Sequence to fold (542 residues):
Amino acid sequence: MAVSRTQGALFGTEWTRQELNRLAGLVGGTEDVATDRDKLAVTYPVTGAEIGDIPLLTADDIQRAVERSKAAASEWQELSPDERAEIFDRFAALVENHRQELLDLIQLETGKARQHAVEEFIDVPMTANYYAEKGPALLADERREGAVPVITRTEVVSDPVGVVGVISPWNYPFNLAMTDLLPALMAGNSVVLKPDEKTPFVALRLVELLIQAGVPEDVCLVVTGEGPVVGSALVDLVEYITFTGSSETGRLVAEQAGRNLIDCSMELGGKNPMLVLGDADIDMAARGAVQGCFTNAGQLCLSMERIYVDERVFEEFLEAFIPETEKLTLGGNFDYTADVGSLIDEPQLERVANHVEDARERGATVHTGGTNRPDIGPLFYEPTILTDVPAESLPACEETFGPVVRVEPVSSTEAAIDAANDTNYGLNASVWTADRRRGHEVARQVTSGTVCVNDAYATGWASLDAPMGGVGDSGIGRRHGPEGLKRYVEPKTIASSTLGPMNAPPAVPDSVFARGMMRSTQLLRKVKKTARNLSITFVRKK
Ligand code: NAD
Fold:
């Protein structure tokens, strides 16, 4: 562990307790709540030491925060999407200019390895850039086909939904806050962000940078406290809720959103499969599996927890995957010396250990790992590879959300697809084959929001122009791409008629008008059908 560079510096970073207290003072946009409320300690998982605390807000505090955010929205909405894009560009540059400090803060809160902090770090300026580039065009007014050609004119405008609530988790606190918040802002909404209580400081610092970039104060507020109190109060007060977290909590939040008749997106858990086909490059697949299973100590919603390998290459795969995994080093340094960091807290460690013990007791084989490492820190757990895992054991049926994977041989590609689809989840999947085209064909047959071919998750996630989200227990709605922005607008149709009301003019009897209408709509339909057919013929001729 590195030593302190300056007086009061936390674990050799430039962060001090005073500086984190200053960030806590930004909670709810007011000093009052930061000083008066009960506090919750935030710890550095690598040692368990307390690094700061945050106020536990009440439901009344959330109401005040939402009101402040609502009141500030008009100033933000007066800016055009192009002007908002300029602010996003400044924000992206600010994030990049504060790289060292932000990477340290991510590691301080989460205990993750530096390289995994980098992964989430780079996502934020890229997301800001994406919505700065695409947002203005996506939000532009759109002409649509009117009811009657020439006589009517129809357009669709994109109104902001209002105040958007963003509830984010602890595993990727930096990018999972911003990936949903930035498009909400681009669409002209104000936002109240509730980060997980274990990782509040990166969210506070990011919102501070947004304000520095030009987002008016109070347009984007951070509220802290316990999920069931603060998160639940938020869902009752906002016009849209974006939730990232467990499927269990997601169900509660979606139910509450349903009762309030507000729209929502739910980014939830997964039990993601990796399919290694018989023709795959095994060394490449093994390296991909290491990244897919053990990034962020497996605390990644997109990570692989099940690997189905064609039986013809099963042994070869294990022989490559096990030593590749054993090369990984564990540690919590603020540099690139460790490959895998700490788990987040004691319940998370217990969950991982329970899953492995349950599998072991039921007869599974532990090829590597299978133990915690208190010699490195209280919450470290070794990357673990299991085979012969019985179907009724915990890691076979539940999301582990840790550095544990089970590997199984399958008799064919079809069997791999069936096994992959044998789950209630559907967030991410990964297919490995030498034939990329075949990979895409297999991907179509896997029930999942995203499928990556010859990569575990990064190519899918980093395709910011493409939607990302889950099916089944993995969630509803999509982030990223146009879909990630459009969820935050109320499309409003404005239609006008040059001839006034669409009913019979004074001198025309209703019966004549009705016959005329029926004939003209019939004619219109035939004209449209002919046009459609012509275009089909035209395309075929090509
Ligand atoms: P969690 O559901 O316990 O907590 C997530 C967030 O919800 C936190 O901010 C928490 O404070 C808040 N919360 C808790 N109870 C609440 C309530 N009743 N009402 C409103 N908010 C409440 O999630 P977790 O277990 O800490 O996180 C890990 C889970 O998140 C895993 O299942 C993982 O797969 C999932 N996850 C999914 C994605 C994705 O994009 N699909 C990303 C990261 C994590």
Observations:
- Residues 1-5, 538-542 have pLDDT under 50 and may be disordered.
- Residues 59-268+483-490 form a domain with the Aldehyde Dehydrogenase; Chain A, domain 1 fold (CATH 3.40.605.10).
- The radius of gyration is 26 Å.
